[in-house]
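anyone else get weird line breaks when pasting these?? whatever heres mine. first is seq + tokens for prot A
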Amino acid sequence: MHDAAVTIKLINTDPREYSGNLLVYLVEENITDIASDAGKLVNRALQQVSATGDFKGKKEQMFLFYPELMQYDKASEVQAKRVVLVGLGNPDEDINARREQLRLAGGAIAKQAGTVKARDVLVILPKNFLLAADEIAECLTEGLLLGNYRFDFYKTPAKEDAEKSARVESFLLHSAGFSSKAVREGMHRGKALAEATVAARDMANQPGNVWTPASFAEYAMKLCKKGRLKCKVLDKAALRKLGMGGILGVNQGSVLPPQLVILEYKTEKKNPTLLLVGKGLTFDSGGICLKPPAGMEDMKYDMCGGAAVLTAMQAIAETEVSGVNVVALIPATENLSGAAAFKPGDIIRHYGGKTSEIINTDAEGRLILADALAYGIATYKPTAVIDLATLTGAVIVGLGHHYTGLLANNDQLAAQLIDAGAQAGEPMWRLPLGPEYRKQLDSRVADIKNAGSDRSGGTITAACYLQEFVGETPWAHLDIAGTAWNFTEKSYIPKGPSGTGVRTLVACLRQWKPLKQPSEKKQ
């Protein structure tokens, strides 16, 4: 995990007096005058590069210059070592597009700062940008901190590293006349969301011999020391006593014991309780049904759902989300092919008694999620349930690495998640559910089998399996196999783990709307 914390703070002093490494102005397309407080030099530079066509303010377009080379008197108008103009693109009336413009700009700034090895950066908030001041600060902060991300924990420092891109140590925001209170609130939210997302990326980047099932429990315990969360961890003996045959079955081939990590965030009793469940498969070899060796190293990412849920709870507590109580469950184990590993043809018994015939030991994620879902619903009686999992390769075949697959038994819950995903820049595509798909899981010898007889509709049949364990509770399943890593590359989303799901979950819970009951819909 990252040791060196990146700081971000608000300042209101004249930007022209800033003498640091990099001063940044955000410019919408075809704008030739920023503001009077930018100074004549910056506006003159903007007008010149606009006239030549070298900079038009297009999305993520940049123009870097050195003020000292443009000032001929001793009394320099701009003290910064470098100034960069960053394009925001065309003004867009769509609020979500505006949010994304700021994140992309923030990511581009971080990348440019790394290229010139700027350790400190001052960014002037854009005026007349449609969004409220707190949202501008929140989205820009997310872009800056997420774009500044590097995972070089295991790289041995070398001389040549000094010549490579560096990480910014300190970001400064200038309120540009906005309310300091509003900007500070948005900056705090953006920082909490970005840090949680970075933590999820770090967890996924860690190798399977470092990030183990016990690591989830250890991280959760550390979060609880901050006071807003309560934690409980069910060990192997407790899981056996509860009859969680899914988690125990998958774990049989590993020498590392399984964990079921439970985090609780409480506000008021009158508020609805929402259940989050994240798949914590810290390494998935496929078990007896072994995966092909090529690309198997990526199976350390099979815990990204658990990482997203765990760090979403971190952000929920830090930003003090109101109006809801939240319970998070992370079933964590490895799926290996040890001597005691479960086998095709085995029959396991889930929490609650339902039996499952194992057809494919590589269809293991649904087994551990089923136990967690059934236990969570029976124990906490939630108003709604959301699970996240890198569940199927089929979702990548269907949607690529651009959309998260969404399946749900409740239209209102699905709509809230789609809206939250659009706000966070993490789009979703809803897939169908139905009895015609569920029939593919009929077993001759058990209540259900864990995979269909062919590969058709694999993402949907996996969700059908989970649906068996939620009953009538409103439930949504997010298959993030395509977006948890190698997500659409953006300035603030690197190759590898993206941390997807963290900001979407927090956005959904932050603006939670009660779900209407069937009787209410008819009125």
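and prot B, same format (seq, then tokens)
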Amino acid sequence: MAEHDLIEAPNGSASENTHANAAAVMAVTIGGRKLTIEEVVAIARHRAPVALSADPAWRARIQRGADFLRRHLEAGATVYGVNTGYGDACVVDVPMELVEALPLQLTRYHGCGMGQYLDDAQTLAVIAARLNSLAYGFSGVRPVLLERLADLINHRVLPRIPSEGSVGASGDLTPLSYVAAALAGERDVMFDGSLRDVREVWTELGHEPLTLAPKEGLALMNGTAVMTGLACLAFARADHLTRLAARLTALSTVALDGRAAHFDATLFEVKPHAGQAEAAAWIRDDLTGREDTPGHRLQDRYSIRCAPHVIGVTRDALSWVRRDVENELNSANDNPLIDPDNERVLHGGNFYGGHIAFAMDSLKVAVANLADLMDRQLALLVDVNFNNGLPRNLSGAAPARAAINHGFKAVQISSSAWTAEALKNTMPASVFSRSTEAHNQDKVSMGTIAARDCLRVLELTEQVAAAHTLATVQAARLRLKIDSATPVPAPLQAFIDSVTAHSPFVDEDRALESDLRALTARIAACDVLSDYFGGSRA
């Protein structure tokens, strides 16, 4: 089955305001195929719409699950969360006349989230993850529910999802209740840049709010979509940071007049970690044509010489992080599961987010080490004791003004603070399981907290990367002032030019906050190194 369908942009009175300028865009197909991290990121960041699979067999299977569940209930069967209470209240039978009301009650009492709201990209990633899980065909939901979830994405009807309140099993109950409530016509959403009552928005789109069928509230909420959606975004940002750290290592080598020989391919063939070799190859390619200067220090300091070994840990971690995140993304992870082919109800624990929790706990450690690496390289560049003749603090001031100019002194201090905070936030969340809900949820994953922690570490590391980028470009330009014959390979010169276009050379001291904020935003959006991605980044 093709991975994308060409579809028309959503139409209708409300969508015309936002989407009419997109006559035809590539949609990500949901249903009957596996979704990738890059596709989730495309939905979340690049406004890619989704299209439910047109395969009749897939659509029939979804309907078959909902039909079987309805027949099963009519036959008098007991199904957890459908005609019983929730959690510890699973021993409480719900009378048939109240079964239809139960899903909405679930969304209401879970409306107690706190903390910052997820941003637009995070919200879209969460909805995409939930939609894909329900489209697996083991959740007993109707096709119309999948259609309305697709509408949330395609029309950018964004539930306001508080980031705090999930212990990661039974899935992301409280934050996902805001998605379920939006489908049912309750709570506020962001739409066309305004905070709106969702019932009014559905009317503008030509739909009535859904009356959730038995189990549909539970199917929407009892899963790992929040942690998984956030993990997809974290993966993309960590991937970009590894490439940026490699580029900055190469440029630091030029600025410090260091040795390209530290990245010789043979070194990495005899210690064959794939990620380490990959990082070294990036640095080596960036230094192509550079000859080491005789008479200089025989070995550069560890933050330069061992950079591939540090970056390589993250590269290798990303390989298995991808595996686990995409497995979770392409799974049925609510409870109970409805098997439409064998007509069985399976009570289990697929809502447990342990794989995402461990992946995010591990990734934040690896990313924080990138912050530490870049901060140490920056410390070398500003220090006249170690920077091989560059001006103190990378000041670009004329000699007559040198005494009152301090260049990147404060930037390095701030970078050190951001690095320390990133390192502090590497405490694993997954080991802090708490027994909740009358000891029914007595071992939980904390996967959503781990994912949020990882995003915070990424944010801090991207700030360090922005500081290091500005400083390293400044250092390289200062090196060229000292020796105009210094060879700067083409990829590095293009990078210098790109950065300088946004942040000019610092000759006289100036406040660099706006430069840092703008560059940090570009780094977070994975929008700095298009040459590494062939112009088609996720």
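btw re prot B: The chain has 21 helices and ten strands. The domain at 230-533 is CATH 1.20.200.10 (Fumarase C; Chain A, domain 2).
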